[in-house]
Amino acid sequence: MLCSDEPLLEKAGEDISHWFDPTTGDVKTHIHPVTKLPTFYTPQGRFIHIPPPDRPQPDWDCNYELPWWKDERYVIGTLSQKTRLIRTKNVLTGLEAPLEVPSEETIREILDRYASRNSHAGSYTWKGISTAHDRIFMDMNMDKTLAENGIPDESSLFTSLGLAPDYHIPVLHLYFNDDLTPS
Questions:
Q1: Which terminus has fewer CB within 10 Å in the chain: N or C?
Q2: Are the beta carbons of 124 and 175 closer than 8 angstroms?
Q3: SS3 label, residue 33
Q4: Cα atoms in the 13 Å half-sphere on the side-chain side of 163
């Protein structure tokens, strides 16, 4: 079985966390049926930094300090526990934009995401309706998440009631302040 980049290239841009043991962070292992020794489990095909499964081979290059999955230079991001849908409404223009955001992101990180749609996103006050504060329309704390700002993710409640998880999508209202945002 040859080592190649094919398994990684086939999954480029996709979540491959199921290839790894969540406890160790290494590629999952199994007992090899012939050698009866623990070896990396790669049903998708052997890839870079995975040694040959059955015996040492002279052409296998093991000249690296860390396998790529342990090297911080190759960490692209973290996997969100859950994403959620929101809408942004620019009250100056009336335009609405749907966004799917990780539940762990702060409003400031959501603003950074929204900036690709409006380069002056930083010139707006972000407001939302907080269910934690008797549905008061309030300014968002930019360093807190939606839930921490009193806007919980209610999709599982809707699902439990037989409704579509996107039955209600929270709206963040963006109020224009000034145009001092650097271009």
A1: C
A2: yes
A3: coil
A4: 11
Q: For residues 107 and 174, what is the distance between their CA atoms, to the nearest angstrom?
A: 12
What are the phi and psi torsion angles at 114 (to 5°)? -70, -25
For 29, 105, 127, the CA distances from 90, given in Å and listed in that order, are 51, 20, 11
DSSP strands (E only) in the chain:
29-31, 38-40, 83-90, 96-102, 124-130, 136-139, 171-176
The span from the CA of 140 to the CA of 132, in Å, is 13
Q: 61 and 53 in contact (C-beta within 8 Å)? A: no
Q: pTM surpassing 0.90?
A: no
Tokens of 78: 């973290």
Q: Looking at this protein, which amino acid is placed at residue 75?
A: V
Q: Could you read off the pLDDT of 112-168 as tens digits, one per residue?
A: 988 888 888 888 999 998 776 666 788 999 999 999 999 999 888 888 888 888 888
**What would the pLDDT profile of 15-37 be if each residue is shown by its tens digit?**
788 888 888 888 988 888 888 88
Give the ranges where 12-145 is alpha helix by DSSP (H): 107-114
